[in-house]
Design a protein that fits this description.
By secondary structure, this protein is of the alpha/beta class. Helices cover 36% and strands 29% of the residues. It holds the Pfam family ABC_tran.
Length: 299
């Protein structure tokens, strides 16, 4: 492991706001030198968790551990983290060129040449104030800060808000290209699961302030599958199985399943049923929906 690849461990993180439990005893580990996706519904606790992991806020209980050292009050470690938030109100009255100078002075691994190349690529005027930027332009400026920081740990909270599909893909391409050249630990929180799935080596689902699921993206995808065919045959096949979702059209039924042994999947295929892969977004939507229903729908 190099200094550009730092691991993160969360040990029992809890956070309350005025009697509301935002995070509850979170234990999680984020592999060094990898791109991680942090996925959760609105209000799940994603931003609260990122604030704590970046040293912007303190947990009521628990610790953030970076490469074996507790983050709290460790300025040396905090300087190794770049946290790109949705928006930055303190920047509103500053010109972009002033903010870039500030980043250069306060970011140990800042790449000025790369930052200016991205300013040109994204067509941002350095003489404009941050407050004059559109929602999408603010996202692009945040992307420049995160990419050019070359920080060993980089967090992006909803990094493509306000961007059209072409600009979102440009950001994804730039992130992957720079990550390949300069490996680091990257954590991205996003609602655009289908299009950002390509980025993630590891996935963490957070739901109602708790970690619901964490693992390698491929391993999680392998646990889900779709099964479709004639209603009677499908209903016989799924008895005793964990069914996340069902759709019916006439006499044809399609189901989304979780954790079915491979030998059973092969037997279904041999019997004429259609077995397919499940998308990460569908798994996320229906796993969290099932969990919420089981808890009575309370937030």
């Amino acid at each position: 492991m190099t200094t550009s690849e730092m691991s993160i461990e969360l040990q029992g993180i809890s956070k309350q706001f005025k009697g509301t439990q935002a995070l509850h005893k979170i234990h999680a580990a984020f592999e060094a030198g990898s791109i991680h996706g942090l996925l959760g519904r609105n209000g799940a606790g994603k931003t609260t968790l990122l604030n704590i992991m970046a040293g912007y806020d303190l947990a009521n209980q628990g610790s953030v551990v970076i490469d074996g050292t507790v983050l709290k009050d460790q300025q040396r470690l905090i300087q190794q983290i770049c946290y790109v938030r949705e928006t930055e109100k303190p920047w509103e009255e500053y010109k972009l060129k002033k903010l870039l100078t500030f980043f250069k002075l306060n970011t140990p691994n800042w790449d000025e040449e790369y930052a200016m190349a991205l300013m040109s690529r994204y067509q941002l005027n350095p003489n404009k104030k941050y407050s004059q930027l559109s929602r999408g332009m603010k996202s692009l400026f945040g992307a420049i800060r995160g990419l050019a920081s070359r920080s060993p740990i980089t967090f992006f909270d909803e990094p493509v808000l306000g961007l059209d599909a072409a600009m979102r893909q440009m950001f994804y391409d730039d992130l992957l290209e720079d990550y390949t050249k300069h490996p680091r630990t990257i954590l991205i929180s996003t609602h655009l699961i289908d299009e950002s799935e390509q980025l993630f080596e590891y996935i963490t689902f957070i739901h109602q302030g708790q970690i619901m699921l964490q693992g390698a993206t491929d391993a999680i995808l392998q646990r889900g599958l779709t099964l479709s065919g004639r209603k009677e045959a499908v209903e016989r096949a799924i008895q005793g199985k964990q069914v996340l979702h069902t759709e019916q059209l006439g006499g044809h039924v399609g189901v989304l399943l979780w954790d079915v042994p491979e030998e059973e999947q092969r037997a279904w295929q041999q019997s004429g049923l259609d077995v397919g892969s499940a998308s990460l977004q569908k798994l996320f939507v229906h796993l969290t929906a099932q969990s919420q229903h089981a808890k009575g729908g309370h937030q």
